[in-house]
Amino acid sequence: MTPEVLTIGRVGVDLYPLQQGPLSEVTTFQKFLGGTATNVAVGAARLGRRSAVLTKVGPDAFGTFVRSALTGFGVDTSYVGTAEDLLTPVVFCELDPPEDPTLLFYRLPVAPDLTLTDEDVPWELVRDVPLLWVTGTGVSVEPARGTQHALLRHRAGRQHTVLDLDWRPMFWSSPSEARKEYEAMLPYVTAVVGNRAEVEVAVGTRDPEEAATRLLAAGVQLAVVKLGGEGVLVATADASHTIAPQLIEVVNGLGAGDAFGAALVHGLLAGWDAVTIGAYANAAGAIVASRLACSDAMPTLQELEAVMSGTAV
What we know:
Blueprint: E1 5-8, E2 12-17, E3 29-34, H1 36-46, E4 51-57, H2 61-72, E5 80-82, E6 90-94, E7 102-106, H3 123-128, E8 131-135, H4 144-155, E9 161-164, H5 175-185, E10 191-195, H6 196-203, H7 208-217, E11 222-226, E12 232-235, E13 240-243, H8 256-270, H9 274-289, H10 301-309
Parallel strand pairs: 1-4, 1-8, 2-6, 4-5, 8-9, 9-10, 10-11
Antiparallel strand pairs: 2-3, 6-7, 11-12, 12-13
Helix pairs in contact: 1-8, 6-7, 8-9, 9-10
């Protein structure tokens, strides 16, 4: 069946420690599917959406694992290519502290997902898919940078085109380089999501209200600024609202943003208003933050409804 959601970008294998503390002292790890774009596709599938991911892996056992795991989660792998001379990325997570874990990326000399070219793109699907999800990391280097800009121009701002700012300093030479690339994408997207640090890079301010105002002025229809323990700000041309957080005990803060994104995807496709989308996205992020994994921890719609109704155990 034709996908409702196409995400583009980062994929890899997450290795999570089974103990808290510095990596130098951890003794055992567990393997999970990972990567922002990949996790959003998985989360959307968990919520009943037909999702696919456009990315690349290496010709190795971890690449095989990625395809198998995606299939198991119900994500279409038709657009997962292979970079024959590169390895599938591996990411180590340091749960120290669990609320804001440190990531150690093994993506050198370049990750396969950053080698996407025009030949890898399903152009008709990019144009017509109901929701396209792209990330800031996707324009951090060539050739993926030029490819992502080209596909955004090809889509021409159709609803829904979502940009996850996904600011990862280690992938860029400087914040100013990233801002230039973000600015080039803003005219072609209908929604932007990021935390305070990410919007500061994108539009020059950490203030949520001012950041949302600048994003809307750039032509975005929905601006979403994640505020961590303070909730989330959602803003449209008509109004802005700050939605209170879900209070939970954090096990692993990683993946919460991807679950948030998956619920955002579901809400946009369902035609929900911005406040409802923000509330459900908050709930999804809280659920995943209370669990160890990212992709494996993505909630179902029933779990989301339970949290929203106050009946979750």
